[in-house]
Amino acid sequence: MQNLNHPRKPLFALTMSFVLPGFGQLYNGEPNKAIWLFLCFTLLSTLGMALIALYLPAAWMLSVLVAGLLLTLSIWLYGMIDAWRAARRKQDYLLQGWQLSGVYILALLLCNALAFPLLINYFMDHQVASFRIPSTSMEPGILRGDILFADKRYNCHGCKTSVQRGDIAIFTYPNNRTLYYIKRVVALPGDRVRIGGHTVWVNDKPLTVQETKSPSGSLVTESIDGRQWQVQWKAADKQASDIVLTVPPGHTFVLGDNRSASKDTRNFGTVPLQDIVGKARQVWFSMAAQEDVRWGRLGRVLE
To answer: Which of 175, 197, 199, 224 is deepest in the core (most CB within 10 A)?
Structure first.
């Protein structure tokens, strides 16, 4: 006679919930709980993090981000513990009609290999993405090892925000379209740009507000359209010939804030507006080369 009793295995249920939140509940015959756990975990780890990165005041970002991460992990941990405990109680269990191995495999593929990745990709492509800075080209404002949020609602079709002078833009590198670069936009289509010495002029107006010289180089405060930031030049920098050009239609003129150690428009030319994919917004983590966390930079707003 066929054995109709299929006791649930606690360790197996826990492992399934570890692989995918709610998966263990599905194994235990609790589809409603499985759906809610999966939705809570998925939406909190994608939509929730996007809302925190884009809409919260800068002063709240770090603490709420940590709280959101802890809540997400708590839901994941709760799902594993709940699946394990429920399986222990179900030692006399009759399989439901839909509890087939094919259903489990299909659920795993739909959720873990399709729904979750598609949702993540959507938010990274259209809402917010994280970028790690590998170089010193944007010092002193952005350091090597900074990990920042970038607003992807910027400069897209139908977006409310457009590229402005002074923005820190992320764009596709013209000479290798598999790479992203980060630079500051200093001029827009039709602007006249001139660079001489440590001074940049846009439409015949110098950007320099103040210059402080030291043995190691110069720290220059620049300003345009009500925006202000600092750039640096090394003392040993050999000044190139003056640059004079008019930004062509549909392009921007970009410079790194570390003017002596930046590959930018001076090297690869102007950047098409259509290649700008995001605007740097805020540092959410930072680690120095010695693997020391720069706690003071966490939550820093980028100007």
So the answer is: 224
Type of residue at 98: W
Q: Are residues 59 and 169 in the same domain?
A: no
Classify residue 251 as exposed, middle or buried by CB count within 10 Å of its CB (0-12, 13-18, 19+).
buried
Task: Report the candidate in 275, 239, 273 with the shortest Cα–Cα distance to residue 259.
Answer: 239
Nearest to 136 by CA among 260, 50, 276: 260
The boundaries of the domain holding residue 210 are: 157-279
Phi-psi map region of 148: left, alpha, beta (phi>0 left; psi -120 to 50 alpha): beta
Helix (H) or strand (E) holding 134, with range, is none
Q: Are residues 259 and 166 in the same domain?
A: yes
Per-residue pLDDT of the chain (303 residues; tens, 9 = 90+): 455 678 999 999 999 999 999 999 999 999 999 999 999 998 888 888 777 777 777 778 778 888 888 999 999 999 999 999 999 999 888 888 888 888 888 988 888 888 888 888 888 777 888 899 999 999 999 999 999 988 888 877 666 678 999 999 999 998 999 999 999 999 999 999 999 888 999 999 999 899 888 888 889 999 999 999 999 998 666 555 578 999 999 999 999 999 988 999 999 999 999 999 999 988 888 888 777 888 888 888 888
Kindly give, in sequence order, each residue whose CB lies less than 8 Å from that of residue 216, ignoring residues fewer than 6 positions away.
234, 235
Structural domain count, the chain: 2
Q: What is the dihedral of CA 46, 52, 54, 60, to 10 degrees?
A: -160
Structure tokens, 258: 């570390």
Element (H, E) at 91: none
The helix/strand/coil state of 93 is: coil
Give CA–CA dist 153/162, Å, rounded. Answer: 9
Q: Tokens in use for 22? A: 């709610």
Residues 163 and 273 in one domain: yes
